[in-house]
Structures are given as structure tokens and as C-alpha cells.
Amino acid sequence: MSGIGTGAVEKLVLSKLLVEGSNRRIFNIDHHAGMAVAGLQPDGRQIVNRAQDEATQYKSFYGESIPGSVLCERVASYKHAFNLYWSMRPYGVSSLLAVHDKAAGPQLYLVEPSGIAHRYYGTAVGKGRQSVKTEIERLKFDQISCRQAVVECAKTLYKVHEESGKPFELEMSWICEESGWKHARVPAELVAEAEQQAKAAAEESDMED
Question: Whole-model pTM?
């Protein structure tokens, strides 16, 4: 797979009156970086703002985009600082950071509330993460395209969806050759196609059971 997905986010629709696309969980950090957040939404926005500031300051000082490893370290250090003093509350949010740079290519990092950060080929956060990880481990990333990965992500989320009977919205983004190596939302038509295949696969699985 030549590229990386920032995330396929499963957002429960809490009200029939909720406007589609509200309550975003995936954000642009820079043209080459994006972040998906899981946990407390206000905390997530603060972490996103911090990451955007770090990217802007680095580009202003060095004249080039911030490398993925540097951005990850700075976000992790910022989160960790809120675990050191009794007068501060740790951020209640995990962050998936996707970056593409010339030196290291596509990168995916998970930054936890404690400030611990690791780089992954694929991972998951939030409710049902262990089931999603199990499904991800079965994928052969070197043998599928980014478009195929979008479909597989959708199938995985529908398969492990625990709140049966409650509708949810699928939010997806990627950084790949098709997006010009820039962080962008997956085209709506591709998301719709992926959802159709995921629903069909889920129905087929139910019939076999």
C-alpha cells in the first residue's frame, strides 16, 4: 500500500436532528499531516490546535514542513507535561497522527494521553479497538492499494460495530499518491462505495450465522 490512512472513524449519530458532517474527529494539521482523535472532543481540539501551531512554527523557523517524527515527539511531550503536576488534568484523548515526508515516507503514530508514542503500520483506538486490531493484523499492507484499504477499513468497522441498532457515520481520510501526498478526506463517492460493500459483507456474514 503506497500511502497511509489517517483514520476510519466510527461516529455514533446521537440525534436524528444532527447535521451530517458535524462533530468532526479527523483534522488537517498541515498539508502533509492529519490527525484523528478519540476521547473527549474538546480535549481533542486542543491537541489539534497545538499540533497545528507546532507545524506552523517549524515551517516559519526552518522554511520546510515539519517531519513526522518531530511533530509526534512535540505532541507527545505536550501531552506528557499535563501528567506531571497535580494542578493539571491529563488530556483525555488518544491521537492518531498520519504524516508523509520525503525522508521517511508514509508514517502513522499513536500518541496516548500519557504522552507515550509509537509508530505503527496500522492500529486502532477507542471502543472496540482490540477487535479492530485483530482484523487489521490480517491485512497484507504490501499487497493492497489505498482504495482497497478504504474498503477493508469500512468492512472492519461494520463488523465490530458494538452499538447494533444505533446508526453511525463513517469519516475517512488518507495521504497517498491519489491525494497528491497531501492529507485529504477520502472522496465521498469512494466512502459510499466502501460502505455499500461493508454492509453487504455484514449481511452475508449474518446469513451464514
Answer: 0.89
